[in-house]
Design goal:
It contains three helices and no strands. By secondary structure, the chain is mainly alpha-helical. The protein starts with a helix and ends in a 5-residue tail after the last helix.
Length: 83
């Protein structure tokens, strides 16, 4: 359930970021989101490992949490209509 919450939160944040950036700055917003989301996922990985989970257990979940919102963000950025 926590994984799903993180993915949904990432999708909401990237949607707001790309929408608020406007057409001209969507790729910049996607790049900034990617860096910020990576930091959040690393923090979440570290938190999981501090609670006794191994890297082998956490890594696939964290990759999913990272990849889904970032992929959607870049898709939104690249599908923006040309000015």
């Amino acid at each position: 359930m926590r994984t799903l919450l993180f993915i949904v939160a990432g999708l909401v944040i990237v949607g707001i970021a790309v929408w608020a950036a406007g057409i001209a700055k969507r790729r910049v917003a996607a790049a900034l989101f990617t860096m910020g989301w990576l930091a959040a996922v690393i923090w979440n990985l570290r938190t999981g490992m501090s609670h006794g989970y191994s890297l082998q257990e956490e890594l696939p979940i964290q990759l999913l949490i990272f990849a889904v919102p970032v992929a959607v963000g870049w898709l939104l950025a690249w599908k923006a209509p040309a000015r």
